[in-house]
């Protein structure tokens, strides 16, 4: 086996185009003079084609490759940009005290610590937003607005206790240091009897 | 609050089944398309043979992908519900932590290091997914803030507001 492969390997694997071409042309021309034939081949244009560097590109191929490279790098850059935006959104939402999520957390904490609310709603008190797709209740209704130069925000979400549930209305205003402070915080109770619990009113 | 029914319905135990089913649908459809393509790609030439091979691959692999996704979705949703119940609120942190726990649990057999790696990967993916609505909401909020709103009246139950304190805060 090793003998056979040693014999056939150069033919099977190590045969460049140039060599093929030479064999072919010598056969065709039925040469009288081998040197003459070789001379002819050396000056023919075909030989140049055969001998050209396989890595070199024609202008059309260059254009095609350039277009491909530009498209791919564009896609990669856009993807990186989108990922960066998402990462920025993530960090600014979760590690900032003025984000919607932290306003939700802060107001819910105030509500949970209120004795009256705990008595009326019943513990444990759970907070959640609006229904969105896939049975998630994450969306918190909010309206940012301005009075003069100061930023305000109104948020609404739901709370549910052991006994009753209600809808939280909160108005927040940015103080001098740019941090939202609660202006008022109240819970409108759902169901009967109707009622409103005023948790905080610091207007 | 357009749908009053949905407010009273607790989503949580049933959501696990929903998510497992949704995961199966996504996995079966996406994985089916993927394996159909793979079957076509790696078959012997000829239209008939390629089509047959694609269908065979789809039949063999599509439901498997569906099952994998269903397991992931069910586990993730279970974790999400547990966290919601424990923390008493629904927010994106639940998802992120649930994603980390779910993928960590699925990598249980690879050992501690593999589990931690899978958990971090799951957390990153879920964090990115959760960031999409956040980014959209923030973009809308910035656009909304540009328009100066008239202050809506405060709820009347709070009583008349002392006008002198309005701009002082």
UniProtKB/TrEMBL annotation, chain A:
GO cellular-component term (any): TIM23 mitochondrial import inner membrane translocase complex
UniProt keyword terms in alphabetical order: Membrane, Mitochondrion, Mitochondrion inner membrane, Protein transport, Transit peptide, Translocation, Transmembrane, Transmembrane helix, Transport
Segments crossing the lipid bilayer: 70-91
Location relative to the cell: Mitochondrion inner membrane; Mitochondrion membrane
Record has Mitochondrion as a keyword: yes
Domain of life: Eukaryota
Subunit structure: Component of the TIM23 complex.
Protein name in UniProt: Mitochondrial import inner membrane translocase subunit Tim21
UniProt organism field: Oopsacas minuta
From TrEMBL, chain B:
Protein transport listed as a keyword: yes
Keywords carried by this UniProt record: Membrane, Mitochondrion, Mitochondrion inner membrane, Protein transport, Translocation, Transmembrane, Transmembrane helix, Transport
Main location: mitochondrion
Gene Ontology molecular functions: protein transmembrane transporter activity
Localization per record: Mitochondrion inner membrane
Segments of this protein annotated with the region Disordered: 148-169
Membrane topology, as annotated: Multi-pass membrane protein
Any one Gene Ontology cellular component term annotated for this protein: TIM23 mitochondrial import inner membrane translocase complex
GO biological process: protein import into mitochondrial matrix
Pfam family, any one: Tim17
Keyword Protein transport listed: yes
Function description: Essential component of the TIM23 complex, a complex that mediates the translocation of transit peptide-containing proteins across the mitochondrial inner membrane.
Similarity comment text for this entry: Belongs to the Tim17/Tim22/Tim23 family.
Name listed for the protein in its UniProt record: Mitochondrial import inner membrane translocase subunit tim17
């Amino acid at each position: 086996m090793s003998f056979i492969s040693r014999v056939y390997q150069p033919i099977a694997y190590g045969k460049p185009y140039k060599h093929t071409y030479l064999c072919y042309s010598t056969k065709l021309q039925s040469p009288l003079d081998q040197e003459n034939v070789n001379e002819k081949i050396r000056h023919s244009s075909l030989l140049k084609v055969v001998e050209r560097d396989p890595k070199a590109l024609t202008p059309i191929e260059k254009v095609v490759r350039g277009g491909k490279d530009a498209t791919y790098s564009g896609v990669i850059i856009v993807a990186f940009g989108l990922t960066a935006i998402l990462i920025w959104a993530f960090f600014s939402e979760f590690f900032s005290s003025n984000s919607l999520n932290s306003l939700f957390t802060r107001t819910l904490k105030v509500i949970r610590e209120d004795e009256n609310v705990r008595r009326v709603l019943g513990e444990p008190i759970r907070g959640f937003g609006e229904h969105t797709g896939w049975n998630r209740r994450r969306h918190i209704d909010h309206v940012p607005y301005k009075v003069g130069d100061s930023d305000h925000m109104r948020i609404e979400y739901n709370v549910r206790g052991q006994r009753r549930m209600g809808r939280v209305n909160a108005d927040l205003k940015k103080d001098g240091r740019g941090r939202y402070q609660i202006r008022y915080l109240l819970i409108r109770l759902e169901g009967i009897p109707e009622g409103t619990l005023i948790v905080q009113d610091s207007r | 609050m357009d749908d009053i029914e949905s407010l009273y319905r607790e989503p949580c135990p049933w959501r696990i089944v929903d998510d497992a089913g949704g995961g199966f649908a996504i996995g079966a459809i996406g994985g089916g398309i993927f394996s159909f393509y793979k079957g076509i790609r790696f078959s012997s030439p000829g239209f008939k043979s390629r089509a047959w091979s694609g269908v065979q691959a789809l039949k063999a692999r599509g439901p498997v992908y569906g099952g994998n996704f269903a397991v992931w979705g069910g586990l993730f949703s279970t974790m999400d519900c547990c966290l919601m119940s424990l923390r008493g609120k629904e927010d994106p942190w639940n998802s992120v932590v649930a994603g980390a726990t779910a993928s960590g649990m699925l990598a249980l057999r690879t050992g501690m290091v593999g589990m931690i790696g899978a958990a971090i990967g799951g957390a990153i993916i879920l964090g990115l997914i959760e960031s999409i609505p956040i980014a959209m909401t923030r973009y809308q909020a910035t656009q909304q803030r540009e328009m100066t709103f008239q202050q809506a009246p405060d709820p009347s139950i709070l009583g008349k507001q002392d006008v002198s304190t309005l701009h002082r805060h």
